[in-house]
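Suppose you are handed a protein chain with no further information: no name, no annotation, nothing but its sequence. What can you learn? This example shows the usual starting point.
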Amino acid sequence: MEEIRRDTIQKPKGGAPRKKVKREMDIRIRLTATEKFLIENKAKAAGMRASNWVRAAAKTAKVIPRLTVEELSILRMLAGLANNLNQLTKLAHQQGILSVALRCRDLLVEIDTTLKHLNNDDRESNHR
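A reasonable first move is to predict its three-dimensional structure. Written in structure tokens, the prediction is:
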């Protein structure tokens, strides 16, 4: 019979099997006691560890970016248009509606154009 050499047979190593994706990077954040409590409770309710819950939440979170300089400018313009409309309403009450109708129509067209421009943005958060 052939003799089997013990030094050529690899013995299986103990422990958990190797993971396909190894997490090597970390991010450290500071939390208040309340924030930590909320995260841990949400993770527990989902049957997850807190770290797994945070990873899942980060992957699916929808973050709306701050307004650009152009968008802030448009909002200021819209506020000015609203102020003009308010002044025209006051004038209509003082002088009668017919004398102000043309000015109101022009202002409403300008407001409508501005609102369409604001709603037609291409920010990433609106495409999800």
